[in-house]
Write a structure and sequence with these properties.
29 helices, elongated, disordered C terminus, binds 2-acetamido-2-deoxy-beta-D-glucopyranose, eight-stranded mixed sheet, 894 residues, alpha/beta, disordered N terminus, 41% helix, Rossmann fold
């Protein structure tokens, strides 16, 4: 309070001496221009700004002694409330006849005061009221000598995007300052596809317990990135509570807006220790020599006025305050206040009613002069546009140790960069020390919230136990889920780069209830489960309850075959080389490089034309011819499967066949409780027969109860594994993506799990899993039942490769034996060679039949029907009983 007394004395001294400037050399009488100052002197910012303002007045007139005007300051403590600031303003207007007011400090006060200022035509110059709720314009008497808060939202959003965080929580105070920027911030985050699942509003009046409770709620949600937009007094309380409950440890990320980032160097040790690892955004001020000198003097003055301060450093608010004084001093000198014979306005002692507000005659002139003033100030280029300062660059800082270090900049044009004016256009920031002294970027979310484990629902099925079934654990005697889907889910969750604890929960699929899987999925948004692992088909309509990972049912494997072809290519080349070398063919002699290139040339040119003339041995010609056939078959097989892949999109679904079923009034079976019920009902009506399990399908088909069964490919495959003989597949009748794991909507795990699924699908582990649960090894027993028509598997073409391999090896063997017997010691002089060549061709032609014989075995993929049966993992297919192998035209639905 002694400060206030001191100040009152100071004001009386200044206000009471109209000839203040007389000690000046100038003989002319100086004109005092009364200026009000409304600050909240209980806050750090208020104290800082007052130090700057009083210093600025002294500095300015010390440097400009011949100025005829003098600003006379009248400080009023506006405290925190709107009312006290309002009454302070009215008092200043009425009692002191101020021509301008610095302040008020708070945005809510400024909103109220801007009305009074407009009415009284007294410019209200604020350097701290940054809320975009208050609009300033060239005509408004509210002049914002500061950058409004909405200018920084893109910088904040860029930081969040830079660290690839997908969700953030916003914590802000419930004031005009706190609320004003939120719509802009949310827009900016949304423009970067960043979700704000939660927003916490803390009123400045909240007790510590209330703050703690709010923070504990935040700790329970998964998001670990917090954007804090608060004034320092509220912020410090939030941070110390956050630290107390362990929310500033490893894994958390905190971003503070400029309201706090500007003041990091001046907060107490306790506060800064709670803010370790925070990232902040603040307007960038270039450090000039002038600024350094100012900072030294300012610190001394501030220390004298506030001896209790622990750490001090002028914030940008102090600089703006300093520059504002200069702007006003220049403006009042320019408008030559004295010419208007400065008078104290009339005082209406009995009225502080706003209607009775005095109106400053000089107001418009002063306002115009103020907003047109521009100069290079301490805070950089000082120029008002629409009555407010414009932002140029923001600095990104990281709170480390006792202060902050710059990690980069953000400009509207360049975005993030480590240096201002660095040439790269790519977003880049320096290294950050995160909360908990961690150097690894926080993931941004946590799966275990307060030790909670993921609840994974597993459907308890009635058929097709290969996908999901429950086995008794020999040790615990508990029923644990296993099966194809579960094994993949286990492997995928284990392969995530972080530990995700989860428990399986049984969910009994009610047999015969239509859309029973949908019922299960609906439990996820209801909060009963987090995920569903099982044979859940990815359907568009199911996305209203859950999100799906990418499908985990198989798709084609072409690579293995290519590798095998390549091996045979080399193998054939080797055989050729072996045989021809024994015949001293000069193409296969000489330096190794030449030999290799020749061998490759001979083998490869087979693809284009037969190259027999260059070959000396009839054996190698045989090898080449066999290889030629193999190549022909491979080529046609690839062409066929490629064509089928390319034309899948245009494939007419076998609805024609299904249509025939409908027209002829045949009965069609479907899996009890399957989603297909809804799809089939309009078509088949009462002709639909629900069946449960492959055994029922088979018996129904055999008995003729149904003529066809409709089901998805993975089930069809399993059915065919069991009952391959005599059934055939028609399809696809309808396309589905396959099976996927269902997750809570917008689960942060989703993309990582999808990635893990794809990685697993591409790994050799997948073959083991498929072999263990699916039909992969038994395809050969049911050649006509193979659904994957376009799949060229090594298995299918093994006859071709075996045939080629045996012929080639035998040729080499014969050549070796001949060579050992010495029959070809001097082949160059042997005359019958051309004859042999001629004989060879018919011989080779004679060998065609064996190759042709091989074709039916091999040629599945090339067949028309095969191409139609394009497999993409889980397409709907219908099966009909093969009329060739069984009596009648019965069709079975699976
Ligand atoms: C003050 O003096 C400077 C030169 O010292 C001059 O440029 C300036 O115009 C003067 N200002 C006024 C208001 O007389
Ligand atoms: C805030 O500042 C930005 C950039 O300086 C400007 O585009 C915007 O209009 C301002 N908003 C308000 C409400 O004054
Ligand atoms: C102030 O009070 C005086 C006397 O009570 C009265 O004559 C005058 O009209 C009042 N002024 C206003 C503005 O109400």
């Amino acid at each position: 309070m002694e400060r206030r007394t001191l100040f009152v004395l100071f004001s009386i001294l200044l206000a009471g001496t109209p000839t203040l400037g007389q000690r000046d050399d100038s003989s002319e009488a100086l004109v005092s221009v009364n200026v009000g100052v409304i600050l909240d002197m209980g806050t750090l910012v208020g104290k800082m700004c007052w130090t700057s303002i009083s210093m600025a007045v002294d500095d300015f007139y010390a440097a400009n002694r011949n100025f005829t005007t003098r600003l006379v300051l009248h400080l009023r403590d506006g405290e925190a409330s709107v009312i006290s600031a309002g009454s302070a303003a009215l008092g200043l207007l009425h009692k002191e006849g101020v021509l301008a007011i610095f302040g008020p400090q708070k945005s809510a006060q400024a909103r109220f005061l801007s009305d009074i200022a407009d009415k009284a035509r007294v410019p209200s110059i604020s350097f701290t009221a940054t809320s975009p709720l208050i609009t300033s314009s060239a005509r408004s008497y509210f002049v914002r000598m500061a950058i409004n808060d909405s200018a920084q939202v893109d910088a904040v959003a860029s930081i969040v995007r830079y660290y690839a965080w997908r969700e953030v929580v916003i914590i802000h105070e419930d004031t005009d300052y706190g609320n004003g920027v939120i719509p802009y911030l949310i827009d900016a985050l949304q423009a970067n596809s960043i979700r704000v699942p939660h927003r916490t509003v803390i009123p400045p009046s909240a007790t510590d317990d209330q703050i703690k409770e709010e923070l504990l709620n935040l700790k329970m949600i998964q998001t670990r990135v917090f954007i804090v937009h608060m004034s320092l007094p509220v912020g410090t309380r939030v941070f110390s509570k956050a630290k107390a409950i362990g929310m500033t440890t490893k894994g958390f990320a905190w971003i503070v807006t400029d309201g706090i980032a500007n003041l990091v160097d001046s907060v107490d040790h306790e506060v800064i220790s709670a803010m370790q690892g925070f990232v902040g955004v603040k307007p960038y001020v270039p450090r000039t020599a002038e600024l350094e000198a100012f900072i030294r003097r300012w610190k001394r003055k501030y220390r004298n006025e506030n001896p209790e301060a622990e750490r001090i450093d002028p914030s940008i608010f102090s600089l703006w305050a300093y520059d504002s004084v200069r702007a006003l001093a220049l403006a009042v000198e320019k408008v030559e206040v004295k010419r208007f014979s400065f008078e104290k306005p009339r005082i209406f002692g009995n009225s502080t009613d706003l209607d009775a507000l005095i109106v400053s005659k000089m107001g418009p002139t002063i306002l115009k002069a103020v907003i047109e003033t521009s100069f290079t100030g301490l805070s950089g280029e000082f120029r008002l546009v629409n009555g407010q300062l414009q932002s140029s660059a923001y600095q990104i800082v990281n709170v480390v140790g006792n202060g902050q270090k710059g990690i980069g900049f953000w400009t509207p044009k360049r975005g993030l960069s480590p240096q201002l004016g660095s040439p790269t256009n790519k977003d880049e920031l320096g290294a950050v020390v995160w909360p908990g002294d961690s150097t690894s970027v926080p993931r941004g979310w946590e799966i275990t919230t307060g030790g909670r484990r993921l609840r994974v629902a597993v459907p308890v099925k009635h058929s097709f136990f290969e996908f999901v079934r429950f086995d008794e654990d020999p040790v615990t005697k508990e029923n644990v889920p296993t099966g194809y889907s579960i094994e993949i889910f286990d492997k995928v969750m284990k392969s995530l780069p972080y530990y995700v604890p989860f428990d399986y929960f049984h969910y009994a699929i009610r047999n015969g209830v239509s859309a029973s899987y949908d019922l299960l999925l609906q439990q996820v948004p209801a909060g009963d489960y987090d995920d569903v692992a099982g044979d859940v088909t990815i359907l568009a309509r199911r996305f209203q309850y859950v999100d799906f990972t990418l499908p985990y049912t198989e798709s084609g494997v072409y690579m293995i075959l290519w590798l095998c072809s390549l091996c045979f290519f080399v193998f054939t080349g080797f055989i050729l080389w072996g045989i021809e070398r024994m015949h001293n063919n000069e193409h296969f002699m000489g330096p190794p490089l030449q030999v290799i290139s020749n061998v490759l040339y001979f083998t490869f040119s087979t693809f284009v034309f037969a190259h027999k003339q260059e070959l000396k041995s009839s054996l190698s010609k045989t090898v080449i011819i066999v290889w030629l056939f193999a190549v022909l078959i491979l080529t046609s097989t690839y062409t066929a499967s490629l064509a089928s892949i390319l034309t899948t999109a245009n494939l007419k679904p076998a609805f024609n066949d299904v249509g025939e079923l409908v027209r002829s009034g045949k009965f069609v079976g479907y899996s009890r409780g399957s989603f297909q019920m809804d799809l089939l009902k309009p078509t088949f009506g009462s002709k639909l027969i629900p069946l449960s399990g492959p055994d029922k399908y088979a018996s129904a088909l055999t008995k003729g109860t149904v003529n066809a069964v409709l089901h998805e490919l993975p089930y069809v495959k399993l059915f065919l594994k069991k009952y391959c003989k005599g059934y055939t597949i028609i399809g696809p009748t309808q396309k589905t993506l396959g099976f996927g794991f269902a997750f809570r909507k917008n689960s942060p795990l989703l993309s990582d799990v999808s990635k893990a699924v794809v990685t697993l699908m591409q790994s050799p582990l997948m073959d083991d899993i498929e072999k263990r649960w699916m039909l992969t090894n038994d395809t050969s027993q049911c050649p006509q039942a193979d659904a994957g028509g376009s799949h060229i598997t090594l298995h299918r073409l093994r006859g071709l490769f075996v045939f080629t391999g045996i012929i080639s090896s035998m040729a080499l063997l014969v050549a070796c034996i001949e060579n050992l017997l010495g029959g070809y010691q001097n082949p160059r002089v042997r005359p019958p060679e051309p004859t042999l060549e001629e004989e060879d061709e018919p011989l080779a032609d004679d060998e065609q039949p064996p190759v042709d014989v091989g074709l039916p075995e091999i040629g599945g993929p090339g067949r028309d029907s095969g191409a139609k049966l394009e497999d993409s993992g889980g397409r709907g297919l219908s099966m009909t009983e093969n009329s060739a192998t069984s009596q009648g035209h019965r069709e079975v639905t699976v």
